[in-house]
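[Q] Does anyone have a clean structure-token version of this?
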Amino acid sequence: MNSILVASDQGTPLTVIRKSAFAAWLEQQNAFSQNWIKQTNFSGQGICLIPGESGQLSQAVFVSDQPEHYFACGDLSTQLPQGQYLLSCEDELKKAIAFAWAVGSYQFERYKKSNKTLATLAINDAEVVAQALIQAEATALVRDLVNTPAADMMPEHIGEAAIALAEQFGGSVSQIIGDDLLTENYPTIHAVGRASLHKPRLIDMKWGKETDTKVTLVGKGVCFDSGGLDLKPASGMRFMKKDMGGSAHVLGLAHLIMANNLPISLRVLIPAVENAVSSNALRPGDVITTRKGLTVEIHNTDAEGRLVLCDALAEAENDSPELLIDFATLTGAMRVALGTELAGFFSTNTEIAEKITLAGEQVNDPAWRMPLHAPYKDLFSSTIADMTNCAAIPQGSAITAALYLQEFVNPETNWLHFDIMAFNTRTLSGRPVGGEAFGIRAVYEYLAAQYPVK
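[A] Here you go.
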């Protein structure tokens, strides 16, 4: 990735211009460039390549309505001819353009090599380049994990990814695997994952000084969700490789935190399972006693993500973290409410929620707060247990899922629950179809402001 974005002052000039400033810029160009742009009928939007007098490429121009958008320049590395370009733009645009260029150069080539050629962008600012590369690497980690098919991304593989990340930044990883989950009192993680040949596990990564502020991330790691005995239809099962997207997100966010060395005592908990069908699969109507001691009647085995998360959240509370954040591809209801391109989240702290929303707006990583409407708790009441794992009616199910999880979080805890898509369903600038990171840059920007490097 470093080869497509470099700190240098060499390259073919690439000028990025706001559309409203294009006419004024054009007036300042030499007669040859002005005539070329006129004769080629350039519309004043998009890419214009201007040759020199001998025919070689003299400069490239990119005109955009919103060049400050963090994905506006996301396709330039593939649209421009191969070579190295030196960025010329307003100083306040450099950060967004560098990120867009780096993240837009992403290609998933594990199973099929791409024939795309990539151009290189040079920016005469080493810090801007370094930060853009960190952001792009974290995004690529999320995308790679989500894009990998379930056959190659089972609980053990998520464990390997966590170990590799911890080793890169000097962290540590422990895992509780298979029947040891029962011995160590993680019954719901075991119950959801026991039907699979791939043993369920709780992955526990730690990094940072214990004396620093405790921040804990929890990520849903359902590597494939068949729905269990409440089997999904084929259409609903097709892209369930992405149901471990929450685990990918917390690893991506951890990458941002550790690469930037934020003064945080970080813990990452990932309950990793496959929700499979077998003779010992969890059944509708079963009752499980969770790690916290609450009993849960299984209304639907396809509402499994909240089951694995609830034991991990209960464990996270043992450390009394200053901030507890979980990411999960939890409900289709959130997609209905916000579509597939917005991250929805719930929070017990309005101030933190507002700051994360604002941070997301500033870096074009939108996050929309949803309500923890307490009266809906009645919708998952049970006659034989403390609660069911989902409401009996489909309305408001993103809210009821969040309310279920809240039962396993202490009332005084600053908690955020992200219910995310983790997948692009259409190609956008810098965002190909496939795995995608939602909300991690917004959260990171909040954390970086709250816990600045000294």
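[Q] Thanks! Anything notable?
[A] The mean pLDDT is 96.
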